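Troubleshooting: if your tokenizer reports a length mismatch, compare your output against this known-good record of 529 residues.
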Amino acid sequence: MTNHEIAGVLSQIAEILEIVDDKPFRASAYANGARQIEGLTQPAADLVRAGKLGETPGIGKAIEEKVKELVTTGRLAYLEELKDQIPPSLLELREIEGLGPKKVRQLWQELRVTSLHELESALAQGRLKDLKGFGPKVLTSIGESIVRKRSETGLYLLALAWKAGETLLAQLRETFHVKQAELAGQVRRGCELVDGIDVVVGTDSPKPLREHPWLALGKTPDGIPIRLHAAPPADFGWALAQATGPAGHASRLTAKAATEEEVYELAGIEFVPPEQRDADRPERSLIGWYDLRGVVHVHSTWSDGIAPLEEMVREARDRGFGYVGITEHSKTAAYAGGLSESRLREQREVIEKLRRQHLGFRIFHGSECDILADGAMDFSDETLRWLDFCVASVHSHFKLDRAAQTERICRALRNPYVDILGHPTGRLLLSRPGYEVDLERVLACAKEEGKVVELNANPRRLDLDSAWARRAKELGVEVSIDPDAHNLGGIMDVRYGLKVARRAGLAREDVLNARPAESVSEVFSRRRR
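Known-good structure output:
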């Protein structure tokens, strides 16, 4: 092993010790040992073989023995033991400015935040502000550092770009009084990750628009690139079609006109919805916003949500939905405040009161129940039968091999009281790839068992993606567009899932929560008769 590789191992030990060990001198010793190894003018491996590494300043007996083990075996048992003490993704938090080892330990032990994704969610939900030492300046620094880290990939979450684009449009309309301004590009097509924001403005005088600070810099305060496309109002439809893309599709739309519909008509092509312009065989009868009748997969303060149950119910109703499905975590998910059977029954009493308060609005009482490593459910069949419905999700043992993970999920789908498979691949966009699983087999199993598969609309998941959601449709598997909401604003995350569903070519009849409440109730209750 090279000196650099050995020093890297010692540095990793130091990082973990800073988090798990209250004695700072131990971490300091390994950090210093790493520096000494890195600065050697001859290979540490040669010194080990000559029995002289211990003569190096800063290398004590304990570190000497560990370097010897590393050089002779290529591994270090002590490092493996330390890694077992922390979640695998915890160290990535050390890359965020403002987070030293004590704060990382605080996040882990007090909020169960163990990854960049969870940190970003906790920050957005306002959960960090109550921690000691996490004042406004620290929170700002953390937020800015997360944005910078995300921007290193050159890709951005659809939701982040969409929200920023809507803010820009509103400012252009208010400040410059533009009458024609729309989002285009990847955001309009509903791509799950985008490389920037395209804005089309109908104007004969685009120069003043460059005075807007975002347009002057060519990026949002979060660093997302902005591309301005300006055209005379008479050509606005053509400019919108061109900026929406993709290039192959847009190249067929050559006639300039004020509306997209006219552009398509002049090209002799039937209008294609923006989300279908990447498709080889575009679908034109797509599910729309007003087709969605309710939302399921909603959390509250009973588990890891940050809004009270009654407020989540009221928010869903106020947003115009006809029903909501409450799904707190199950008991194994202790890190997320998972409920025991007795707590579930306590929650049912509260839900019964809310049902009486919200006549005409349906509240389904369910659970997001963990799928255990062997495919068994975290709750007994008796409990699952007693609930209105069950979303079965994988939250652990992500590293099972493909065959074992597939059989695990299929076993869960064969449980008679499982209704919906939650976030089927477990991916976190720009943070974590999905686990190894034969999704074709999983979808086939869902079809065989008559189960629903979730399109999780959380902006960091969008899981299923559009390709697999399309495959679900082809196989005749019903999809549920679920917000996985943990706060009031999360209810409306279904709009991002709707974009992905339209990109997948899903129609109203393909989607569970496009059914009215009575029909959804029938889907759930027929398993529990």
